[in-house]
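Protein modeling request. Please complete all fields; requests missing the sequence field cannot be processed.
Requester role: graduate student
Desired output: 3D structure, token encoding
Chains: 1
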Amino acid sequence: MKLSTRSRYGLRAMVLIASKNGVVTSSEVVADNEGLSKKYLDRILMQLREAGLLRSVRGQGGGYVLGRPADRIRVDEIITALEGSLCLVECVDDPSLCKKARDCPTRKVWSHIASAVKESLRGISLLDLAAGEGERGCFGPH
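Delivered output (142 residues):
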């Protein structure tokens, strides 16, 4: 499994916005701080806003704030908003896509991996990342 730059940049942007503690943060500030293309970042932020993870503030001094508290936003939600399903193969989410899905011995492996990835990412909140807990290896349910 390989995540796209969209997920990596989106997660970094969310951490930066979370670290501002409710202060409206412009996409220019995020792009500058993270060394990202503003044009590409704007598309990512729009996806996150559409998913309800960010809220946009218009006008002078406008930008973005979190859509809900950082402790209630999980990493799996951010990645899913930007990538779609976290499954390695499509038949895990939709068995009708494969004639052999019902009897496939390998589908169990893909399903197990998808569950483990989702569980792991669900155990990390945006607050954990913004507070720097990831640097100390403090991931997991609290």
